[in-house]
Fold this protein.
Amino acid sequence: MPAATLPISLANNPRLSSWFAFLDADSIEVRTGKVEIGQGIVTALLQIASDALGLDPRTLSICSGTTADGPNESYTAGSLSIEVGGAAMRLVCTEIRTLFALAAAHRLRVAPEEVEMQDGAFVSAHSPDTFTYFDLRSSVDLGRDYGGLPPLADPGLRWVGSALPRLDLERKLRGEGFVHDLRVPGMTHARVIRPPRAGAVLAHADVAALKALRGVSDVVVDGSFVAVCAAREYDAVRAQEQAGAHLQWSAGHSLPLPGSLDDHLRSLATTDTTIRATGDGASSAPSGTLRARYLRPYLAHASIGTCCALAVPEGEALVLYTHSQGVYPLRGAVATVLNLPKEAITVVHGHGAGCYGHNGADDVALEAALVARATGRPVRLCWSRAEEFAWAPVSTAMAVDIEAAADDAGRVIYWREAATSATHTARPGWGGEGVNLLAASQLARPFAPGPVFDAPLEPNGGGGVRNIVPIYAFENTHIAFRFATAPPLRVSAFRSLGAHANVFAIESMLNELASAKRMCPLELRLANLQDPRGRRVLEAVAKDAGWDGRRQGNGDWGWGIGFGRYKNKSAYFAAVVEVEVTHRLRVRKVTAAVDCGLVVNPDGAINQIEGGILQAISCTLKEAVQWDAEGISSRDWEAYPILRFDEVPELNVRLIGVSSDPPVGVGECAMGPIAGAIANAIAHATGLRAREMPVTFERLTALAG
């Protein structure tokens, strides 16, 4: 297979030995650069490897996310772990099986095509002998690149498609296995002293006074980076709280007061580009054209557990335990800051609280590394809840302006769309230049962040432009992107990137058109959708939900539909959401249908979809970052509420894909369609069209006048 057509994970890591190893006389390990962040991906990758090798998964182990061993698969992001990482794993393990089948044919004295696999061994009907991978290990050199050999001894699918229990859950359920739980001899606890506001520079530090604080063993000062260490975590936290009296800072810079979200987004300077235009772009809007502006606020990751890292110095080398989603890019960034060769740093992924995007995990890892290098001691460093909200990257706010018109049959004949967004991609190592880590800019020898840009649509779906192009077959379209290069807050990746706002706007406008034409929202969508898989998903969810386009909302109850295909090339997702509007606003039921092609682990896929639905509900109804001149002010759960356990709705998810279609990721497909379906359900119940997230009861009351 030509390198250009290989999955990028394999094209970048062609050496077979980076994916597969014999650990001892009876242990085989497969290796992946993708990491477990709560999505069950490591279990699914083991299932893929097991089927490709013809081995029971109980006879294999899997190593995930370490720069000491395994391929460099960059980030675990974009719902690409199965689509790209899984495809690479399948090809590699198939090639390894073929190499061992060739070796078995030689030992069995039969033609290669006569070799079969049976219970994990290579056999032939023409020989009584059997050979295992271990029997043949000396006959196969895996220190070679993938060559695309025609496969031999295909065992077929046995484990792919089954609900193999998650490998990571047992330890987690016992409260073990997290980075936060790691302890090593001689370890100290560290806390960073934050500046009073962004841009503030340390003018003076009374180091002697800091060292005199109870329990403090070390103080690290490097430019404006200040950290205290103690043998007991409580003493480190207490010292962090008391340190302000012994530090003097310059004024820094204040943030612009936000005002309304709409005014704020209109105030941002943008660079404008046309993404796509079809039909007569110069035509004027026909009569009956609807115009609307849809808004999404800045969003925090809001993981239940805060970020943590452990840095262990080993002479001039360093081992860094982290829940980063990109161990290799993080290694490069940390090596740059510490002025060390990359090979001197080993980054090992450990489980964290879960984050689909770029939170503070990479920042805290660099901070732990800086303190460990300065003190020569192993350092465990955690952030507080307030630090997590105030200093981790957030997801950028967005606005989407749409003008649209439809004919009497519901076909959209005019569509003008423009999305405003800052970057969604400022991870460490992104763009190949600069260091996108918080502490790097605060050092005496500071490092500038990387270039600011939006990811293009190809190859992986873009950032702010993700799903900006409707999947429907609209006529006469013009789609533009307004890129804001200097937002007031530090922004980066968040689950689904721009798809959350873009699909929310598209699906909301479709319902507004349906209402104007007195059409069923489902019928209008089907009138504009040519993709047969998309149509099947919509029809399936309508059947499962008992959809009736003539049913009226009653003021207290309503339902709405939402649909999308993530990145317009990944999983199809459709949902019917039922809402309750009484003294509060609540989603009470969600029915969803998903086509993600071949399903590797149905239990894991449904878990991911259900989790995505719940996060989408939370973001759409509750969440918004608040800030003032000093910085982010929403620093606790009261100021930044998320969905509660007693607000979890009834969830019904059905997978309707066929196994002949390649597998694609499901982790982010729900965000935009659920947001649109909620707004549509509220409009159905109350007649009030909410166009700004979060959609709160107070906002609905204001709309009602």
About this structure: The longest strand covers residues 585-595. The first helix runs from residue 8 to 12. Residues 3-160 form a domain with the Aldehyde Oxidoreductase; domain 4 fold (CATH 3.30.365.10).
